[in-house]
Write a structure and sequence with these properties.
Oligomer: single chain
Mean pLDDT: 90
Structural class: alpha/beta
Distance between the termini: 65 Å
Low-confidence stretches: none
Radius of gyration: 32 Å
Number of strands: 12
Strand content: 15-25%
Shape: rod-shaped
Helix content: 40-55%
Order of helices and strands: HHHEEHEHEHEEEHEHEHEHEEH
Largest sheet: 5 strands, mixed
Strand order of the largest sheet: 4-3-5-12-6
């Protein structure tokens, strides 16, 4: 029989009648009138080509065809309730799955240890995979499910992605403790004249600095361009260079007190660190749990910008 010709809404009626062996009790269980149930039974008989139930002094007795349907029908309905209709749950304490999170190199260096600690404390069997990706391919990776979440400042990601603000990231100048500027007020002139380590990240901070200096008829005289912030600390140790880095990263770099953090002699707009995901996975119970955990752990009150 072609399923297109079957009213699947009748299956719970047949199941209730098989269990209750009474039209009255079956109607009460289904919360329908007896006339509605009788109409449904008539349609079942027509569709299945069988009497299905015979009225006796002991109530409704199933025919051989109906009795043979009792077990598979109960199994089908239980599977539909448990696997199709039930709201998926995520038990962090027992869950075994992998979450893939994309960061910039700065985000990975600063936030990844914190994220790993927070997840492992609550979900010890969950695996985490770090992805450092080109932002140009990140939107598609989120849409395809190759990456579950992205954390960082990605202003050029597609607007169709869902995003949630985590915190604002500010910037600071950093030099070695042995540098001539350590402990001194940084003027625009001193800033421009100091050899600098420059990382052209996705925030556009270095371009903004160049424009701010140009507005004052100044320009930086000596720049050493780097592909990553992670190359900054060993070069600062030479004692010659200054670098403009996110404040939070500077504090991590300065864990052993070998650097000096200096306020910038101009104002830079902060870059906002956000959590990004694709709407295809908005209702995934595990990812919903992970998003709420990250929002709580990386909220403005718990992360210094």
């Amino acid at each position: 029989m072609d399923l297109k010709g079957v009213d699947l809404n009748l299956l719970p009626v047949l199941d209730a009648l098989l269990r209750q062996r009474s039209a009255t009790r079956a109607a009460r269980e289904l919360d329908v009138s007896q006339s509605t149930l009788s109409s449904a039974l008539a349609r079942l008989r027509q569709q299945l080509g069988d009497e299905l139930f015979v009225r006796t002094g002991r109530g409704l007795r199933p025919t051989a065809r109906a009795a043979a349907l009792a077990a598979p029908l109960a199994d089908i309905l239980e599977r539909v309730r448990d696997q199709v209709l039930a709201t998926p749950r995520f038990d962090a304490a027992t869950a075994q799955r992998e979450f893939r999170i994309a960061h910039t190199d700065v985000g990975a260096y600063v936030l990844w240890p914190r994220i790993v600690h927070a997840v492992r404390a609550r979900a010890p069997h969950v695996r985490l995979a770090l992805r450092v990706m080109d932002p140009a391919s990140l939107g598609q990776a989120l849409a395809d499910g190759a990456v579950d979440l992205a954390v960082g400042s990605f202003p050029r990601l597609p607007p169709t992605l869902i995003q949630r603000r985590l915190y604002d990231r500010h910037f600071v100048a950093v030099v070695s403790r042995t540098h001539a500027l350590a402990g001194r007020r940084l003027s625009l002139r001193r800033f421009a004249d100091t050899p600098q380590l420059v990382v052209h990240g996705h925030s556009g901070v270095q371009d903004m600095i160049t424009e701010l200096l140009a507005a004052q008829q100044l320009q930086r005289r000596e720049l050493l361009e780097l592909p990553s912030y992670l190359m900054v600390p060993p070069l600062l140790a030479l004692g010659e260079f200054l670098a403009v880095v996110p404040t939070q990263l500077a504090e991590v770099f300065n864990a052993h007190g070998t650097l000096a953090l200096l306020p910038l002699p101009f104002k830079l707009p902060p870059s906002t660190v956000r959590l990004y995901w694709h709407r295809r996975f908005n209702d995934d119970a595990g990812l919903r749990w992970l998003r709420e955990l990250l929002v709580s752990d990386l909220s403005p009150g718990s992360v210094r910008a």
